[in-house]
Amino acid sequence: MGMFEMAALQPGRKRDGLGRLVERRGDTRLPTLRSSQSGMSAHLWELELVPAIALARLNHDIGALSERALDQNIFFEPTVLRAAWPRLTSLLAPHGVWMACLWQSGEDNRALRLFMPIRIHKVGLPRKTVLQPLSNQFMPIGTPLIDAEYAGEACETLLRLLSDPDLNLPDILDLAFQRTDSASTRALIAAANSLGLSNSTYNSHQRAALLSKNNGEGKNATGLSKKHLRELARQFRKLEEKGETRFEIARSQNRVLDSVEEFLTLELSGWKGRKGTALYNHKRIAAFSRQIVAELAMNKNCEIVSLKHSGKTIAALILLGREGRFVAWKIAFDETMSAYSPGMQVMVKATQDLLERKQFLEADSLAVPNHQMMNRVWPERLAMTDMAIALTPEADQNIDQLIAAKSRLQDWKLLTKNALRRTRMFHRILGR
After folding, report:
1. Cβ-contact 49, 117 below 8 angstroms
2. Among 28-37, 137-146, 210-219, 266-275, whose mean pLDDT is lowest?
3. Beta-carbon contacts of residue 292 (< 8 Å; ≥ 6 apart)
4. Which of 34, 64, 170, 384 to pair with 345, CA 20 to 30 A apart?
5. Among 34, 39, 14, CA closest to 25
């Protein structure tokens, strides 16, 4: 059979009525939708595409892999994935989500070397079918969990096995939200080049970040000027004159659960609520948000920084992370208090608090490029990119077609957005 040995031909496996691979009764392995193996190296490598329903049985292996991975990705850890499906995935991956698990087996052990949740998705204009990690606007980091000790071999084996024709997968792996300078991105590109597979990075951009080196002796911790900081201090004093004003940081699970309800209500009252994009606007997304903070707060991996005025929350920031690495997941503020810059106030407070921690390394804003507030408060930038890898030599030309199709869709969305904005402006002028 050459490079691949299909697991369907292995003793103990058979296909069900839908052609899916299943395990013989009594087998202790995970239920698999599709599976492929390679024995080209000294060890046996096996790629399993596991249904999301089996996540509980993978908790330990994924957790252990995240501890030794090249790069962390909190959104691909079990606590977040438990919250994501079926709530979030039913919206963003209606055709289903699988967990791509690459195992390495020796004489007496079997270890998970690479992990990422994946979906088959149609993108661009015209639509192109691709294989994607489950990264999106709610989970905007797409870095796979890759065992640092076996990174090169794991990445090459993954790309080989994903191209197995019996798996019937798309011939393009489209990875969004990758850090350009990360070890994981370099390992994937090196693996593709080693196998002679075409690959390309596109949609390169930057987003704001906070790094521990900003906390130098006598150096302003934020990207704000001294004049701007004095103005924020003046606004805070004005708030205090109107009523009790204080910052709170919720870290215990009970306090985080209370604070997230305040956050959801606050966000709903603003422009996102009016536009219909607030977390609270959709029942499943709100449920996902509650569970993600509850799961992470249980292990002190979530905290909410709030600005309180006269007993009411007027700004809140949700931080997720551990071991000195954080992401600024969501922020909301009371627009009726904009004269006092509540959003900026809570960001400056969170920045000062993070930089005071001895173990702090970095915080990713997760913000869109050129975000008006985040770019001003956090002075550093993370280089981000999307990356497409052709899984077969024949798919070479499909990469350029994919990038062009996604660019056309973005252009169409921008034109539509501008047309709607002009229409609304025209109606306001006419007094309708």
Report:
1. no
2. 28-37
3. 79, 80, 83, 84, 302, 320
4. 384
5. 14
